[in-house]
Amino acid sequence: MKLPLDMEYIVIGDVHGCIDELKTLLAKQGFFPNREGLLQITPENQDKSIILLGDFIDKGSEEKLRETIDFIYRNYHHLNQNSQHLYLVLGNHEEMVYRYITDDPTLNITPKSIQSKEKYYNTVALLEKDILMKEQFLELYEACHPFLYYSYNKDFSLTLTHAPCPEKYLREEDEYSRKQMIKCVSRSKKPRMKLDELIAYTHTEAKDNQHYHIFGHLSQPDIRHYKNRICIDTSAIYAGRLSCVVVNKDKIDFDSVPFENKQQASTQYDSKLFDFEN
């Protein structure tokens, strides 16, 4: 879970089946596919690695979800043959879909949860009828990390998780901490409460240093950055942008690409993070 220091990292926010946008963003960072759709390692990108920050499935169309899983699966094996160039962080959507398709006995199936599955976890329907794709997904799920850590020196480090969580759970390996790094308190339970009130620790625990906590999970209109906390889920599937953080030694930069309208965008109620009154 500790990342090598001799690589540049391209950390990409929630994909949610936006495979066309993912390919465009990767091309901007120097990763181009061949005729078989496999990303090529070249002298220009051999010192770069890609990190998907969770929630690469769900919400997109079935066609795009199928393309996304196949693309990630084949490139996970292709790019990691000799050294690791593709890492996966576990998101709450991967976790929930895994629980559905493995008949997790702790998953409480109710009419409401079935409705939620059809609306928010629509990858389940695809995997239930496509055994090969189900096997691919299960293999990718096992490859996912609850967090990744990059510590360049005493003044600069990154903790990468899918969801924001209180600092005391970061990089802890017990089951409860793992759950906190995958999914924070749901907005659906208090839809009118501002995110800055619902998960106040994202700003009350933020510090003026370069020991960053980078996460996705909370779809936002743009990259939200407050002190050492950064959210890079910029609502690609909601017709926003797909964004990434580029980490090079002790420096970070940002990049993004717009939604390409090659599938129907989803809709949701937005609540902006770090939306403080001046």
Write a short abstract of this structure.
With 278 residues, the chain is of the alpha/beta class. The protein is built from nine helices and ten strands.
- CATH fold category name: Purple Acid Phosphatase, chain A, domain 2
Question: Percent range for helical residues?
Answer: 25-40%
Tell me the distance between the termini: 39 Å
* Annotation field: number of helices: 9
Major sheet:
5 strands, mixed
CATH superfamily: Metallo-dependent phosphatases
> If you average the pLDDT, what whole number results?
94
Radius of gyration: 18 Å
Strand order of the largest sheet: 3-2-1-9-10
Shape: globular
Number of DSSP E strands: 10
- In the CATH hierarchy, the architecture is 4-Layer Sandwich
- Give the H and E element order: EHEHEHHHHEEHHHEEEEE
Quaternary structure type: single chain
Description:
This protein has helices at 19-28, 62-79, 92-101, 111-120, 123-129, 131-143, 175-182, 195-198, 201-204, and strands at 8-12, 48-52, 86-88, 148-153, 156-160, 210-215, 224-226, 229-231, 241-248, 251-258. Helix 2 crosses helix 6 (131-143). The chain is built from nine helices and ten strands. Strands 3-2-1-9-10 form a five-stranded mixed beta sheet. With 278 residues, the protein is of the alpha/beta class. The model has no long low-confidence stretch (mean pLDDT 94). Helix content is 30%, strand content 19%. It has a single domain, classed as Metallo-dependent phosphatases (Purple Acid Phosphatase, chain A, domain 2, 4-Layer Sandwich).
